[in-house]
Design brief:
293 residues, alpha+beta, 4-stranded antiparallel β-sheet, 3-stranded antiparallel β-sheet, 4 helices, 24% helix, globular, binds 2-amino-4-trifluoromethylsulfanyl-butyric acid, binds cobalt (II) ion
Length: 293
């Protein structure tokens, strides 16, 4: 591998960015817990059309932010770009004010930026992106009462062969998992396919963070593992279901811990990680990706 930067350290976090009153907030903003969702994961056509709109905004925002990933840019600047894009499309950036674990602060930014060994939930701050970094950007948009959620991995500059392979394999693993999500199967088929593919390359798939039902709630309660969880997680995939598939693959061990900021999740061994995420709907004839620009 080419010379790479040292461990990621926490930078300075800027204040919450403003959201005009004209933009509707999710119910959890300003509360300590998100309301529980008991409406299930199978949605009517009208709700799915709304999710389609939020998902498209999230995907367009991700592409826009991704274009700005480069050496010398701060993750706070990426947050500004994503925040403004989402607002300009009449949506709310779902992570801004999302409640944390008990006694922890809410997420203070409009997207997650998780660099190198940061697995997920990285908080945008004054950290400057360097040549070769793997920058995961996770953006969720809320509009018309529903969320669309997606994530991509971007390499700053050219990157090492190892980093580029990790990113490509993680994307392919996500797509294989999505293609396996057909009506009548159990959701655990998705992680089985993802983990099996990751293993071919010596990568480990993160177990402690999963895909999830999404739509009228950011996280509905339905869990989509990215490892072979059978016989558990045997929810049957049905037409009308909407959920995310968002594997995080590690070059080394997937064992991880959280920083004391209550959010940032890093690999214990410092090994680098890539992630992709799509929001998908299950149609009669198979899965359809909603987070497309
Ligand atoms: N978008 C992330 C997901 O894929 C959740 C981020 S929650 C936050 O589920 F609070 F960390 F922003
Ligand atoms: Co998600
Ligand atoms: Co996400």
């Amino acid at each position: 591998m080419s010379p790479v930067r040292e461990s990621i350290v926490k930078g300075a976090v800027t204040p919450w960015r403003a959201v005009p009153d004209s933009i509707a907030r999710p119910e959890y903003v300003g509360r300590t817990h998100a309301a529980g969702w008991d409406g299930g994961d199978i949605h009517d056509a009208e709700t799915i059309e709304k999710i389609r709109i939020s998902a498209r905004i999230a995907a367009q925002a991700l592409a826009e932010v991704g274009r700005h990933v480069a050496p010398g840019v701060t993750t706070d600047e990426l947050d500004r770009i994503g925040h403004e894009f989402v607002l300009d499309h009449g949506a709310y950036p779902s992570t801004l004010g999302y409640p944390g674990a008990a006694g922890r602060p809410p997420f203070p930014k409009s997207l997650c930026t998780s660099v190198n060994e940061v697995i997920c939930h990285g908080v945008p701050d004054s950290m400057v992106i360097e040549e070769g970094d793997i920058v995961k950007v996770d953006i969720t948009a809320f509009k018309n009462g529903v969320h669309g959620d997606n994530c991509g991995s971007f390499i700053a500059g050219e990157g090492s062969d190892a980093a580029r392979q990790l990113v490509e394999v993680t994307h392919e693993a996500m797509m294989r998992g999505i293609k396996a999500a057909r009506p009548g199967r159990e959701v655990n088929v998705i992680g089985r396919v993802i983990e099996k593919y990751a293993t071919r390359f010596g990568y480990e798939s993160v177990r402690s963070y999963t895909g999830h039902g999404v739509g009228p709630a950011f996280h509905t309660g339905l869990v989509i593992p990215h490892y072979d969880a059978a016989p558990h997680h045997d929810d049957v995939i049905e037409p009308g279901m909407v959920f995310t598939v968002e594997p995080m693959l590690c070059m080394g061990s997937e064992e991880n811990h959280e920083w004391d900021d209550g959010w940032t999740v890093v690999t214990d061994d410092g090994s680098w990680v890539a992630q992709f995420e799509h929001t998908i709907v299950i149609n009669e004839d198979g899965p359809e990706v909603l987070t497309l620009p």
